[in-house]
Model the fold of this input.
Amino acid sequence: MKMVAMQTEIEAVMQQILKKITPKSGDKAKIQAIISELEQKIVSACQQQGVEAIVRVEGSMAKDTWLREDPDVDIFVRLPTSIPRKQLGDVGLSIAKKATAGLRQVERFAEHPYLETFVSGYRVHIVPCYNVEQGEWLSATDRTPFHTDYIKSRLNGALQNQVRLFKKYLQGIGVYGAEIKVGGFSGYLSELLVLNYGSFAGALAAFAQFKHRAVIDIENYYASRENELKLLFPEPLVIVDPVDKGRNVASAVQPQKLYTLVGAARAFLKNPDVDFFYPPKTKPLTTEALRRSLEKRGSKTIFLVISQSDAVPDVLWGQLYRTKRSLHTLLELNDFGVLKDAVWSNEKSTSVFVFELEAQFLPNIKKHVGPPLEFEKECETFLSKYADNKRVISGPYIEENHWVVELPRKSSDVVELLKGKLADGGKNAGVAELVANAMRESLKIFVNGEIEEVYQANETFAEFLTEFLLGNPFWLKTAKAQNQ
Done:
């Protein structure tokens, strides 16, 4: 009885959400008129530039898996293979810009440049690719038309709605989107998962049972060849692309996003709620509450604030994440224990790295453990270096099976360490080039409450930092509330 009641509750939530996210006939007619006009302009721009091309709508709009509140229009320009690979993006941009003259234009970048524009309030991506046969890929985007055809041939109306539910759910818990900033589930991946498991609830049930690894091979390319799969695709989630057996559609999914889905799926199936689809807006802590929260923790939270120039988001986030990993390593190598870290950016002018550390200051001395005594040559080298070294505070002495010395620490204050290592931008510390340039010109380092001015000046950063400090996801609160 309890299981039946839960299924009824899940169904009620699903129906409630579907009413909001399913496009109505008027929505479809309006956006189709916009698309048709834009397609004609792109075809005209191709002709003016003497380029033969096939112009076609792809993605969720073509597959009718788009969300009413978030229409996602992708128009692909399939160009002849005679265009050199290095020129593909430039040719595509030139055509797209000519076709959308007078509209807001934003250059984006994935494997190559493409254009984002806005028509009557709708966001439209105009993407170049090559007009190739299946399997003869020259660029990553060449697969997209084949993805569209594959999904369209297999999804009926009921499954399309199940995909909408799954996409909206993934958006709600913050794991939707394969772009570098998110590192989550793409629209195509969402469609394949629903196709494989048969429904939104079926997909959630499967992820709720996820253990160490899941492999989905819809076309059975690797039937009786499972050992090959492990060598080809080492990721924990593997969905073999039905149109390209050498590609894992889930390769962009970061482990943290995968396991967020696992945890959220378990929470939803126990306590279904519309909040999973429409999360409550984070209410930032007051500045006084922020100050108290930071001090109460007993740790030290370090903020590295930079002012960078506007950059292509995928490029920017790739460099921000790479830099965060490098800075984390730098801190750990210098014995500053990192409790957790994150990075925030408004993608235009400001980015902030956040590191919560066990402490800002360390003892002035540190223990340096040498080789085990059984390695005689290495021990001689160690002793020749430290036996008469004036820097040595204590030692060399034997501790268990090792020679040990105590040395003065080069940096006992993390702020001084970071200032020294990042004075030139930090390229030697693994800081990515775009970020290094910004650090060299504008780096500011704050500790705990010193971030107050930045916090007050930017609401989205305030929301981000509030969530960082609170830690637990909103859907865990939803589950707790329903259990009380």
